[in-house]
Amino acid sequence: MKEFIEYILQFGYLNQQQIDFIISKATELELHKNEYFWKAGRIPKQIGYVLEGVLRTYKHDDDGEEKTRYFIDENHLILDWEKFGNNVPPIQAITTCKLLVLSKQDLEDISNTVEGWNDILQKITAKNNNEKLEKRSPLVAQDASTRYAEFMKQFPTMVNRVPLAYVASYLGIAQQSLSRIRKNIR
Length: 186
Hints:
Low-confidence stretches: none
Strand order of the largest sheet: 1-8-3-6
Structural class: alpha+beta
Number of strands: 8
Radius of gyration: 18 Å
Order of helices and strands: HHEEEEEEEEHHHHH
Shape: elongated
CATH architecture of the largest domain: Sandwich
Strand content: 15-25%
Mean pLDDT: 88
């Protein structure tokens, strides 16, 4: 819980009473590997702060293949479903995960009670969107080896936690090619 509050306080000031109110609304959720936090096409009923573990979001390409869009690890808030409407991408646990969860009703209660809460959420959403762009944009024009090297810089703790197939999908390269690249790096 402490990590969650420290994270939120980076984006705005809250007094102790407001913090206590937010804490009273949060519940802990454990997801096992391959379980979903959000399912595709369903309107999410909650947001979550990742305490432990790694999740991914993906979409299916025109050929029906899964393409990992991005990874979500510790100290990140999963919250920007509103931009998707009913087209929410799935968010799946890659490892066992522990999250702090707030339901839509909890969010509404907090918004109606805690002054500045919506501003904090907007700042978090903007930061999340910027991080996604910063991590994805450079990968587009790079060769496969450079993309993997960049991935290792951006996600140093994930290299050994995320299945190779998901990393390859994220980087837009074949798993066999990634295996060769990894072999040459060692």
